[in-house]
């Protein structure tokens, strides 16, 4: 995310040397420490590797009006910005004056929180002298929430897992055991899921104690006055950033793979008087499979794209989000209503910043990157009797039962003056889970994981490289995977004469083609091969610096053939680059 750990300089009083400015800056920095500690506690105490290792979470503190004040450095835009809207829904069901110390509230309703059932949100009041002074919230990814499993195969949300409405998770310190028993009975990995949920309580409670100690230190009774100052100044700073842009309307369209037919994402971005409006009229209709997006998730990633491009230094909170208006037609793939399937909504949602960047390229060509792989390629794997039977074997031959997810990233788009980042989860920001962690927790072997040569789009500034992975079970038993892989048919497009990034590929180690979307089975003895897409380039490849091309060949980022055909090197020059490296 942006603006969450940087000093809130642009949001401070006019005289940054005044006592008020210095004091507010110190308090702001301490607030960031409080919520970052909240995130780190989640990572230290969670059972799921997606939270513990990858940081697929959000953590933040809210005022008593349910406005986001500060967020942790660790977290994803989809979680943070949808959580910013979710807390208000909790207050609708559980007003502040009905809360008691030790209360905690929970939901995973996609239309109220983070867009699919696999994200669980917990909100906890912070008390001082019997009064609520703030709210802490976290949203974390659950690998398993029952149903079909995380993938795009469902035809309604009812097939996608257990939906937890807004409910008390604990009342006055007493955990809602009935709710935990229902959850336990509906998931494949009950110990992990229940352990994760209880860890969210612990992180929120610890952060509340830390906030009280901080307020005591500064002689403050509550958070609301501080929140008003931070939010107002952040809003003013965001409006000033918008005012620097030329007024007008700017359009962009992108076509991506979709489940079984292409999806068109179309946007009009309007820069007005201190506000930006993004409208997705013209985007594809909803899919009958679970790649649809709810409006709060559409808003989350769209707002991230706007803020990352024009005001990355401004703190991300209710103030800086307020001047951004985002709409999408009801019934489009970016604004579905219940009960449309939404499980793999990230496939579409994580492309929205690229759509925003494409629109802003008309006025900020040197500030925004070219298109990238964007959507993470999460390897959601399942083993055991179900996989054995799907492979046509008897349950007696089944391998160990397991369900796991680990993230992999393609290449980011090039930026003016900089090559795209390779193997980087942009815009989600989640970390890759180390092969050693996956292999030590599950009967899985990652036989190969390396940067994918020639996958970055050639250009004056090259696109980032994707990765190549080869995955199997430790004993060779059959296993299943949920394909959630886009840019197999529609690669990232180059800008200003540059080449497209290389498209992705899904196959078995014997060359058998596999689909990018949907639940599929890997037979006994075979391995799954994922070639992740690369980012697009910017500018003519023939204008790339000679020393940059030579370095790319030496490092194995591009081949001798690409150096010759794409960058204009003759075969002898390209071969010399490689031989020089081999010494």
TrEMBL record:
GO cellular component terms attached to this protein's record: cytosol
State the superkingdom. Bacteria
Q: Per the database record, which ranges form the Hydantoinase B/oxoprolinase domain?
A: 21-539
Single GO biological process annotation from the record? glutathione metabolic process
One Pfam family here = Hydantoinase_B
Instruction: Give a GO molecular function annotation for the protein.
Output: 5-oxoprolinase (ATP-hydrolyzing) activity
Record-given protein name: 5-oxoprolinase (ATP-hydrolyzing)
């Amino acid at each position: 995310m942006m603006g969450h750990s940087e000093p809130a300089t642009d949001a401070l009083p006019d005289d940054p040397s005044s006592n008020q400015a210095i004091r507010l800056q110190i308090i702001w920095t301490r607030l960031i420490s409080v919520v970052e500690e909240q995130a780190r506690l989640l990572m230290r105490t969670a059972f799921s590797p997606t939270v513990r290792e990858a940081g697929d979470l959000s953590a933040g503190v809210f005022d008593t009006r349910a406005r986001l004040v500060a967020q942790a450095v660790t977290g994803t835009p989809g979680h943070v910005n949808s959580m910013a809207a979710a807390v208000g829904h909790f207050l609708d069901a559980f007003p502040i004056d009905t809360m008691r110390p030790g209360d905690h509230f929970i939901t995973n309703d996609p239309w109220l929180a983070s867009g699919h059932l696999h994200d669980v949100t917990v909100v906890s009041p912070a008390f001082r002298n019997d009064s609520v002074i703030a709210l802490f919230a976290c949203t974390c990814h659950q690998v398993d929430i029952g149903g079909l499993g995380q993938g795009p195969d469902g035809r309604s949300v009812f097939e996608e897992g257990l939906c937890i409405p807004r409910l008390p998770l604990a009342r006055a310190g007493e955990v809602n055991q009935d709710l935990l028993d229902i959850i336990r009975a509906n998931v494949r990995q009950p110990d992990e899921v229940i352990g994760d949920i209880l860890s969210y309580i612990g992180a929120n409670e610890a952060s509340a104690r830390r906030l009280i100690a901080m307020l005591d230190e500064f002689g403050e009774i509550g958070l609301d006055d501080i929140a008003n100052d931070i939010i107002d100044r952040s809003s003013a700073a965001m409006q000033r950033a918008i005012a620097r842009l030329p007024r007008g309307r700017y359009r962009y369209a992108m076509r991506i793979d979709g489940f079984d037919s292409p999806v068109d994402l179309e946007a009009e971005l309007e820069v007005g008087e201190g506000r930006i409006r993004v409208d997705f009229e013209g985007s594809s209709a909803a899919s009958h499979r679970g790649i649809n997006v709810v409006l709060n998730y559409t808003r989350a990633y769209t707002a991230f794209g706007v803020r990352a491009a024009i005001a990355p230094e401004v703190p991300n909170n209710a103030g800086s989000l307020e001047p951004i208006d985002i709409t999408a037609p009801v019934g489009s793939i970016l604004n579905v209503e219940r009960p449309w399937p939404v499980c793999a909504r990230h496939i579409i949602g994580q492309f929205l910043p690229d759509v925003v960047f494409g629109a802003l390229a008309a006025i900020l060509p040197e500030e925004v990157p070219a298109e990238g792989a964007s959507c993470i390629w999460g390897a959601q794997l399942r083993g055991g009797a179900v996989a054995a039977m799907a492979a046509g074997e008897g349950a007696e031959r089944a391998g160990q039962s397991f369900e796991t997810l680990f993230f992999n990233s393609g290449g980011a788009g090039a930026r003016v003056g900089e090559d795209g980042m390779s193997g980087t989860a942009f815009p989600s920001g989640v970390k890759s889970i180390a092969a050693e962690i996956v292999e030590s927790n599950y009967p899985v072997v990652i036989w190969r994981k390396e940067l994918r040569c020639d996958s970055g789009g050639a250009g004056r500034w090259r696109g980032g490289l994707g990765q190549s992975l080869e995955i199997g079970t430790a004993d060779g038993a059959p296993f299943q995977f949920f394909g959630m892989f886009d840019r197999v048919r529609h690669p990232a497009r180059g800008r200003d004469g540059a080449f497209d990034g290389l498209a992705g590929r899904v196959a078995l180690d014997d060359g058998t083609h596999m689909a990018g979307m949907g639940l599929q089975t890997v037979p006994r003895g075979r391995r799954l091969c994922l070639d992740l897409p690369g980012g697009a380039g910017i500018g003519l490849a023939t204008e790339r610096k000679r020393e940059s091309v030579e370095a790319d060949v030496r490092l194995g980022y591009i081949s001798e053939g690409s150096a010759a055909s794409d960058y204009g090197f003759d075969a002898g020059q390209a071969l010399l680059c490689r031989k020089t490296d081999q010494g």
